[in-house]
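Re: that backbone. Tokens:
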């Protein structure tokens, strides 16, 4: 019986160490914490969209507004989503949460894009699947 218990423990340990060795981010094979259906819009670094002319545009955490980041509505932040988390937006890809939207928005994600033409291509998309990725916390991965 002890041999079977030891063998089981060794196999369990080997399986656990193999699964923890793979830390690369992929939109497939990563279990999600939470998937929601959300409205997706886009915004640019233009000061007219971020506090008005004469205002230095940046994110809620002080980083520059740039491609690859998103602003999320405050209800999502209250539900456990956080700055530095990675999200997968179906049809658009993986983004990092670095900004916050105005409090009037609910279940909405604003994708940062470089210019108005790119923002107009996204437009306003409704009922889009967004998944909060488990392995997406902060720059440390």
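Recovered sequence:
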């Amino acid at each position: 019986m002890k041999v079977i218990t030891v063998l089981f423990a060794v196999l369990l340990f080997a399986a656990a160490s193999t699964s923890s060795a793979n830390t690369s981010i992929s939109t497939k094979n990563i279990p999600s914490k939470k998937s929601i259906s959300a409205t997706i819009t886009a915004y640019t670094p233009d000061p007219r969209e971020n506090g008005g002319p004469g205002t230095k545009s940046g994110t809620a955490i002080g980083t520059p507004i740039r491609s690859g980041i998103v602003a999320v509505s405050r209800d999502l932040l209250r539900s456990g989503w956080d700055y530095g988390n990675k999200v997968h937006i179906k049809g658009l890809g993986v983004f990092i949460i670095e900004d916050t939207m105005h409090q009037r928005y609910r279940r909405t994600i604003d994708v940062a894009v470089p210019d108005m033409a790119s923002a107009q291509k996204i437009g306003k998309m409704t009922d889009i699947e967004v998944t909060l990725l488990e392995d997406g916390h902060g720059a440390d991965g």
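Residues 61 and 129 are 25 Å apart (CA to CA). The longest helix spans residues 2-21.
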